[in-house]
């Protein structure tokens, strides 16, 4: 089932624009959605007790991508941005900082589980993308 989860890079496709427009990463709703997916994806990959909620992940992906289109970004612009190594690195660094601040130790899978359970319990958007096995 792990191969069925939409990769974070697919969600990163949503986070950018072109020079004539405000970068989508500067639009809080877009950037926050991409961030939440990135964190949830890392939690589900590192914690053996947590799985993705695929329907919720796909629904968030579709709605965020639609929001980007509604702002005037073409599929080509969105996809071109998704190939940006710099943006992927920015989101990865932001997610790692969030996880560290919330007690995640990269060498301890259970610390990812603890964060995942915390997110699920508080009904955050990150938590809505996860479920305990």
What does this entry look like structurally?
There is one protein chain. The protein has one domain. Helix 2 packs antiparallel against helix 3, helix 2 packs across helix 5 and helix 2 (28-46) packs across helix 6 (109-121). The chain has helices at residues 8-12, 28-46, 54-70, 75-82, 85-101, 109-121, 125-128; strands at 50-52, 130-132. By secondary structure, it is mainly alpha-helical. The chain is globular. 62% of the residues lie in helices and 5% in strands.
Helices, strands, pairings?
Blueprint (H helix, E strand, L loop, with lengths): L7 H5 L15 H19 L3 E3 L1 H17 L4 H8 L2 H17 L7 H13 L3 H4 L1 E3 L1
Antiparallel strand pairs: 1-2
What is the approximate shape? Answer: globular
Round the Cα radius of gyration to an integer and report it: 15 Å
**Count of individual domains:** 1
What's the count of strands?
Answer: 2
Order of helices and strands: HHEHHHHHE
Distance between the termini: 12 Å
Structural class: mainly alpha
Helix content: 55-70%
Question: Major sheet: size, sense and barrel closure?
Answer: 2 strands, antiparallel
Strand content: under 5%
Q: What are the segments in which pLDDT stays under 50 over at least 5 consecutive residues?
A: 1-19
Helix count equals 7
């Amino acid at each position: 089932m792990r191969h069925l989860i939409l990769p974070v890079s697919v969600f990163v496709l949503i986070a950018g624009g072109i020079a004539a427009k405000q970068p989508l990463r500067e639009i809080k709703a877009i950037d926050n959605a991409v961030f939440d997916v990135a964190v949830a994806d890392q939690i589900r990959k590192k914690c053996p007790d947590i799985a993705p909620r695929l329907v919720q992940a796909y629904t968030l992906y579709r709605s965020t991508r639609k929001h980007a289109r509604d702002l005037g970004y073409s599929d080509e612009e969105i996809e071109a941005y998704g190939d940006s190594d710099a943006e992927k690195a920015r989101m990865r660094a932001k997610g790692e900082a969030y996880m560290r601040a919330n007690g995640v130790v990269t060498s301890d899978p259970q610390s990812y589980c603890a964060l995942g359970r915390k997110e699920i319990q508080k009904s955050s958007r990150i938590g809505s993308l996860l479920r305990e096995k």
